[in-house]
From TrEMBL:
The keyword Oxidoreductase does not apply. It is found in: Cell membrane. This is Cobalamin biosynthesis protein CobD. It holds the Pfam family CobD_Cbib. HAMAP family: CobD_CbiB. The gene is cobD. Belongs to the CobD/CbiB family. Converts cobyric acid to cobinamide by the addition of aminopropanol on the F carboxylic group. Pathway: Cofactor biosynthesis; adenosylcobalamin biosynthesis. Keywords: Cell membrane, Cobalamin biosynthesis, Membrane, Transmembrane, Transmembrane helix. Its main location: membrane.
Length: 323
């Protein structure tokens, strides 16, 4: 079976598996990678960019190498190749768990249980929950849904379409390393620099596709385009900016403002300043938009891979006839 069809069938099956099963409670492959990366960090950590770059190369390179070895070992079997792609897709995407956690926080807020919402929020993002009121928690959830639609779904599908199982695994490895060491704390400002920069590069295509699809699939196309064009560049993250701005415009809400991470207060630029403040009901709207974006991304990535293969085969055939 051609590689493009392996990806098409495998990615569709993997996304269906995520929809039906979500993430496993125990033994998640991404968690296992995180433990291995943590062990490497304990050996290599130095307050130096070079040692951080080595950490990134060892962890991300090791994950991609193992994925490539696995893909090579099953390439003679159509069934095994599709099964491996499906398993890798299911392991690296997290759209169902993202929606489940967002809705759990939304349900707590709707019930007026602020403490329960604060307790659940760390499952979704790294904000300081005690520093947030109900409105701040709702805004944090919508922002997290937007950003993780790119990181946990679309970006993985894009790299899977480009490079198969190694692309799927490599993207999740890079994204996980960024979450672990890529933040600007005193410990990781230099050591995590390489992971953060690599994540910016790897996340670029998925974030732009997410922004485009959120614009198309949302309820306010003009508002999403306007917010993306005017506000995305204001965000400190080159990839989160377009995604959060387009979600803000598509939902008609205002994102950004005061944030608190690990006791450190940040003041982010406001995205879609003409929008209204986020309300609890907007969490469900954001989750549904995220699901539509994920479905569209699968269709586009599969179609793109099939079309690219057809065009390349056509050029090779034409070259063979003229040689």
């Amino acid at each position: 079976m051609r590689a493009d069809r392996v990806f098409a069938y495998g990615a569709a099956a993997g996304l269906l598996g995520d929809l039906l099963l979500g993430d496993p409670r125990r033994g998640h492959p991404v968690a296992a990678f995180g433990r291995a990366a943590g062990a490497v960090e304990r050996v290599l950590w130095q307050d130096h960019r070079g040692w951080g770059a080595l950490h990134t190369a060892v962890c991300a390179g090791g994950a991609v190498s193992l994925a490539a070895l696995a893909a090579t070992s099953v390439r003679t079997s159509r069934t095994a190749s599709v099964a491996l792609t499906a398993t890798a897709t299911w392991a690296v995407v997290g759209g169902t768990s993202l929606g489940r956690e967002a809705r759990a926080v939304g349900e707590a807020l709707a019930a007026g249980d602020l403490e329960a919402a604060r307790e659940r929020l760390p499952h979704l993002c790294g904000r300081d929950p005690q520093a947030l009121d109900a409105d701040g928690i709702a805004r944090a959830v919508v922002e997290s849904v937007a950003e993780n639609t790119s990181d946990a779904v679309v970006g993985a599908l894009v790299w899977g379409a480009v490079a198969g199982v190694p692309g799927l695994v490599g993207f999740r490895a890079v994204n996980t390393l960024d979450a672990m060491v890529g933040h600007k704390s005193p410990k990781y400002r230099r050591y995590g620099w390489a992971s953060a920069r690599l994540d910016d590069v790897a996340g670029w295509p998925g974030s732009r596709l997410t922004a485009v699809l959120a614009t198309v699939a949302g309820s306010d196309l003009r508002g999403a385009v306007r917010a993306w064009r005017s506000d995305a560049a204001k965000h400190p993250s080159p990839n989160a900016g377009p995604v959060e701005a387009s979600f803000a415009g598509a939902l008609g809400v205002r994102l950004g403002g005061r944030l608190s991470y690990g006791g450190r207060v940040e003041h982010r630029p406001v995205l879609n300043g003409d929008g209204r403040a986020v309300q609890v009901d907007d969490i469900e709207r954001a989750v549904r938009l995220s699901q539509r974006v994920g479905g569209l991304a699968l269709g586009l990535c599969v179609a793109g891979r099939l079309l690219t293969t057809r065009l390349l085969n056509g050029r090779l055939s034409a070259k063979g006839r003229t040689s």
